[in-house]
Design goal:
- By secondary structure, the chain is mostly beta strands.
- Helices cover about 10% and strands about 45% of the residues.
- It is globular and about 40 Å long.
- The protein starts with a helix and ends in a 7-residue tail after the last strand.
Length: about 180
Amino acid sequence: MMMKRVLGPCVLCVGATLSCAHADTFVIEADQAGHEATIVIPAGAVTKLSADRAEPLEGYAGSQIEAMRLSGDVLIGIAGRSQPIEIKADNVVVELTADAAPGIEKPGLEKPGPEKQGHTDPTANKVLRSTSTATSFGDHFQLFVGNVVFDMQTASGPMEIKADRVQHQLTSRPGV
């Protein structure tokens, strides 16, 4: 009887902790010049996809890619390798690709070697290229401007975000 009283709250605490995993969040801001952001994601990695409007793009990039234009309160949930990834935007083109075969990595996103095993290295699964220096806003987020490209590993293979302005949230904030 005593075991049930102790274990019950412990199981609830573990469940609450697991369900509150912090997502690696990217907010894609609208570009004044009208350039569209492009997100390339393995289809099997998508856990949530919502938008006010969706338009299929026929013949966009060949038969291996399913493409669509999403607009209005776009929210995409992705199963990342080490933590969930969340993308928020107003207008993006999403390219859904086939899942990569196990063990296939995008160059530069390889798993850490034996010398790094046992250490969490958040940069091991993320590579950034940008023509402009990032602007930091305390511990909350960084803003990247000018031909921004994020390459990341998901549970189903590599993904990529291409945009002119991307806000990368560094810490989880209530209501975001």
